[in-house]
Amino acid sequence: MILLNAQDVRKGFGAREVLKGVSLTLQTGQRLGLVGVNGCGKTTLLKILAGADSPDGGILSCGKGLRVGYMEQNARLTGGATVWSMMERVFAPIFAMEQKLRDIESLMAQSGGAGDTVQMDRLARDYQRLTDAFEEADGYSWRSSISGMLVGLGFTKAQFDQPVEQLSGGERTRLFLARLLLEKPDILLLDEPTNHLDLSALTWLEAYLTSGAGSRLAMIVVSHDRYFLDAVCTDVAEMLFGKLEVYGGNYTRFQQLRAEQFEIRQHAYDNQQREIARQEAIIARFKQYNKEWSVRKARSREKLLDRVERLNKPRDERGARFSFRTNRRTGDDVLIARGLTKSYGERTLFRGLDLHVRAGERVVLIGPNGAGKTTLLEALIGRAELDEGTVRLGANVDIGYYDQLQSGLHPEKTVLDEVWDRFRRMEPTDIRSALALFLFTGEDVFQTISTLSGGEKGRVALTILMLRRDNFLLLDEPTNHLDMDAREVLEQTLADFEGTLLTISHDRYFINRIADRVLEMTPDGLVEYLGNYDDYLAKKEQRAPMDDADSLGVTRTELAKRRKKERAEQERVRVRKGLIASVEGDIDDLEKRIALIEERLADSALYSDPAKAEEAAKEHRLLTSTLSQRMAEWERVSTETAAE
Question: Cβ neighbours of residue 380 under 8 Å, at least 6 residues apart?
Answer without folding.
Answer: 335, 337, 355, 391, 474, 502
